[in-house]
Amino acid sequence: MKTLQIIARLLDYPDDALWAHRDELLALVAETSELDQVSANRLAEFIRQFCAAELLDRQAEYCSLFDRGRATSLLLFEHVHGESRDRGQAMVDLLDQYRAAGLVLDCKELPDYLPLYLEYLATLTEVEAKAGLVDIAPILALLAARIKQRDSHFALLLELLLTLSGVEITAEDVTEKLRNESRDDTPQALDAVWEEEQIKFLGEQGCISDEEKAHSQRFAGAVAPQYINLDVNSDAVNVGESRP
């Protein structure tokens, strides 16, 4: 599916090559039969508007959206396993799938990086690729909802992936469940994470005070994003409580 390659490129970190080859991307969008005309037009307009800005501005926007906090991370397993041990095994299993498909990865990205996963799906048959999108549809809906809350045009790309998957899950199905979720990309939230990590380190050294313990408890879980249950057969995405 060529459209998966296009969206993978747009979800990756913006660089000079994207600006240089934007006309080629637009030509591929015009040729695709994988999207209906309305969706294809929206994707083409995204490319035009995105590449109309200065590259440095788009790079800063990208980092602010995807690299600050965990809630909008493009690492798929972050939204399912967090830092649990299950994440490691899931990584190994996904790497096995890549190797079986003949893909050899360098050390630049983790295997659950969404653009990389989309590149993998693009090498499969259309039926297999859609099944792969169905597997991550709840994550896509969660990301789309959070990105919409941040008023970013990147939400369109996640919504188009949901369209390609053929599932009925939408960002709107998740939005209400996230109503009370605190954003983890604010300066206060990022400071809280840094301070808590410092306290954990001191605790490991055996020199944490009662005041520091109280501070740690006050911030514990304050910026942890909600996690989800990958059950696409349910009526809506199952968004669970924040993990400690």
Treating each run of at least 4 consecutive H or I residues as one helix, how many helices?
Answer: 12
How far apart, in Å, are the first and last alpha carbons?
39 Å
Largest sheet: 2 strands, antiparallel
Shape: globular
Q: What share of residues are in beta strands?
A: under 5%
- Structural classification: mainly alpha
Rounded Rg: 19 Å
Secondary-structure element sequence? Answer: HHHHHHHHHHHHEE
Total of domains: 2
Which regions contain 5 or more consecutive residues with pLDDT less than 50? 189-209, 211-228, 230-237
Tell me the number of strands: 2
**If you average the pLDDT, what whole number results?**
77
Share of residues in helices: 55-70%
Cross-sheet strand order for the largest sheet: 1-2
Keywords: Chaperone, Cytoplasm, Nitrate assimilation
Family: Belongs to the NarJ/NarW family.
Subunit structure: Binds specifically to the NarG subunit of the apoenzyme complex at two distinct sites, one interfering with membrane anchoring and another being involved in molybdenum insertion.
GO molecular function: metallochaperone activity; unfolded protein binding
